[in-house]
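Quick one, tokens below:
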């Protein structure tokens, strides 16, 4: 019974899936910091924002492997925090074939990546999006870090550069 435009559409859906175009999600790194700071303040474990990069990474990695939820509906949320949490909740609700990558703009450190991984985990995103970094901050004065960034694998936790570069 279907013909013309409807038949063409049904063929496209059959061929390409429900989502004809994948949507990339982009958020500025400070917005993730806002959410994590709201969480740590609510849990009364200090300010995430005021922690050193090393302490941020330690906390994020510990909670990535944790089984308990970090926050619930009782988390006090500003409009910005609510927006970020809502975004991750949508990622959890919609089919994964609707999305491409999660882009972090203004990224400056490994904790920026771990923050997104933790928020995907906490919001129960079944197939976490690949995280892509944009380093726009201080691009002209940027210097490579003294220590290499650790490679992160959601299934095995953090790996050192030596295990990343090891040839099998």
């Amino acid at each position: 019974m279907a013909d013309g435009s409807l038949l063409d559409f049904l063929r496209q859906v059959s061929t390409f899936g429900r989502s004809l175009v994948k949507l990339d999600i982009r958020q500025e790194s400070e917005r993730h910091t806002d959410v994590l700071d709201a969480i740590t303040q609510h849990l009364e474990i200090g300010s995430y924002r005021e922690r050193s990069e090393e302490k941020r990474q330690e906390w994020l990695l510990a909670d990535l492997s944790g089984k308990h939820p970090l926050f619930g509906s009782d988390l006090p949320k500003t409009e910005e925090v609510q927006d970020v949490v809502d975004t991750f909740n949508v990622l959890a609700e919609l089919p994964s074939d609707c999305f491409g990558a999660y882009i972090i703009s203004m990224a400056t450190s490994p904790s920026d990546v771990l923050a997104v991984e933790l928020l995907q985990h906490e919001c129960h995103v079944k197939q976490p999006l690949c995280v892509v970094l944009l380093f726009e901050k201080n691009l002209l004065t940027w210097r490579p870090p003294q220590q290499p960034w650790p490679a992160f694998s959601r299934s095995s936790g953090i790996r050192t550069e030596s295990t990343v570069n090891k040839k099998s």
